[in-house]
# Entry
Amino acid sequence: MKGVTAIALLFVLFGASCNRSNFKPEPVVAPIEFVDLSGTRRLLPTPGRVTVVNFWATWCGPCVGEMPHLQKLSQEFDSQGVVFVGVSTDFLDAQEVEDFLGRLGISYPVTMDDESIEPALGPLLGLPTTVVIDANGSEFRRITGAASASELRSIVQAALSKRAT
# Structure
């Protein structure tokens, strides 16, 4: 009888420690502090907000081609709290990248990759790469290669819907 009682007690204790309502997964993306080209300190991902991170380079035609879509979507989703961040993988100086962005009319925050952001978000298999991080800090979707505005819009809307549920 003592053996059955001990087993029952272990079952109750183990079962209580596995209560799923107490389980909170760790965010997949560890917070990274960075300084954008304007000198503003920022946190990536932005806590409690859907964050779209786009890795690009000035020499990458598909990257440059999707930047106007990203600009438009950053304005479209601004009122819903979505944060867009560009990460330049160029070996240019920051001023050259800023001048390039100015010619394209890009106003969302951009930073130079100092080799801390890419490793935190996993390896890049090509450029452009866009990583959508949900409001809980987990990677929601990764796109390698240029994405259309409608594809990006759908992914961001889905990430926002996840936050609402």
Q: What stands out?
A: The chain has five helices and seven strands. Strands lie at 32-35, 41-44, 51-56, 83-88, 110-112, 129-133, 139-144. Residues 4-26 have pLDDT under 50 and may be disordered.
